[in-house]
Structure formats: structure tokens, C-alpha cells
Amino acid sequence: MKNIKNKNLTSFADHLDKQYGKRGTAKREEYEQGFEAFKLGVLIQEMREQQHMTQEQLAMKCGTTKSYISRIENNASDIRLSTLMRIVKEGLGGHLQLNVAFK
Question: Which residues of the chain register pLDDT less than 50?
Fold first, then answer.
């Protein structure tokens, strides 16, 4: 089979550079922060669904409201570290590990 190259293809990294600027620029950093918050919301939602819990059940287990869980899962709310730890530990029975990367 012949390997055909499409010269019109752009890598995702190149797309991000073009759309938001290079890493380190204000616009790109804002995008990266937003994406991390989005990933966190998706992760919480997936963990909750794996345990067959509703948002309301998770909220009750960790002492918050269904609407707050919904806002987190839909990337519509910033989350405090203490609240995140409570959701993961008390609500989902997990353990939160953080990673910090320096340039």
C-alpha cells in the first residue's frame, strides 16, 4: 500500500499555536487553563458515572449541591482545592494526587 501524504493536514499542536499563540503567551495560557478545568470536570463526571451515581447522590455524599456538581462537570464553575479533595475522597472514594510542572 502506498503512503500518501496530505500537505493540507495540520498537527493539533500547530493548530493550537496558530489559534491561540505559542505556549507562554497570555492567550495560550488562558486556553490551557480552561482546558485543564474542562478535563477535571469530565474526569469527575466519568468517575461518578462509573460508580452509578447521580449528581445529586454525589453532592449529598460530599456536602455540596447538585447544581454545583453540574457546574463543575460542565466547566461553568471554578472549584476550590478543598472542595475538590472532598468530592474525590468523600464523594467518590478516591485519592487526589497533584502534579506541578515547571517550564
Answer: none
